[in-house]
Amino acid sequence: MVPRTRAAVVAAFDGSPSSERALDWAADDARRRGLPLRVVYAFTWPLHHALPRGLPGFDVDEYARRVIDQARQRAVERVPELEVEAEYFTADPEPTLLLETHRAHTLVVGAGRMKAVDTVLPGSMAMELLVAASCPVVVVPDREPGPAHRRVMVGVDGSADARAAAEWAFTAADARGAVLRAVSTAPVREHGREEAGPGVPEPLARARRTLSEVVSDVRGRWPRVRVEEVVEAGHPVQVLSALSQDCDLTVVGTRGRGGFAGLLLGSVSRSVISHSRCPVAVVRAPRKA
Asked: Can you give the pTM of this predicted structure?
């Protein structure tokens, strides 16, 4: 295997329709960014229980090679000029993919078809992948992609991870030649109850100020990107889901504060990913050693 000199966009592939959508998205993103694509197929034998063990003429490695070769061929046909590397591992998918994130620019996975409201990722992709990965993780929904809107959305709340998400969202918008929609939310007041005391800014005013501060800190490095600043009252899941209707990508931080607190650690995270009409990128700030 030729050593990589540049971080690659890594696509998790297993031959399923959802992984094919993820592979297509990853190939397109690698092309836009001028990066190589790496396709990884990790599996353990029980995942192939439909193929009986000891079947005459059947070889596990040969089967895996066919799967990964199909993935490579699909990527090359989609983006002929793309540098593609493909590899399979007989190992548990989660730790294998986590190791990949140490050298990857982005890890792209497909969301399995949901059988219940709180089911987001297929069995081989645990939620821990989103919070433990060392690079951004993009979850591609299991639905036919719609027309391109040339708009990237990022949720901002002032936390370190949200700032990292904003920085990454600017790079994504720049690579796409897209508008960046930066969104902040404020809690809705309960009827008859004042949340803002004397001298304390209204929730919407605080959200607007935080959003402007974060955007102004980052936008100077990306002068070509046009920014839409949106501040709305409401739950972040509802706001981001509604605003994702005309976006090509939604970007959020791993952890947040205020309205985005715990965004990817429980039911809120599952709701954001499952209700978004476009792929969701999960970004975390670099952790101090």
From this structure: 0.85
Within this chain, do residues 15 and 132 fall inside the same structural domain, yes or no? Answer: yes
Domain range for 257: 151-283
Q: Shortest CA distance to 256 belongs to which of 247, 265, 248? A: 265
DSSP state of 8: P
Chain centroid to CA 60: how far? 31
CATH number of residue 31's parent domain: 3.40.50.620
pLDDT at 226: 97
**Domain assignment of residue 135, yes or no:** yes
**Nearest Cα to Cα of residue 17 among 146, 147, 141:** 141
Handedness of CA 5, 124, 285, 154 (dihedral sign): positive
Which of 114, 140, 166 lies at the terminal end of a domain, its last residue? 140
Pairing of strands 249-253, 280-283: parallel
Q: Which amino acid is at 272?
A: V
Which residue did the predictor score with more confidence, 111 or 83? Answer: 83
Q: How far apart are CA 42 and CA 154, in angstroms?
A: 31
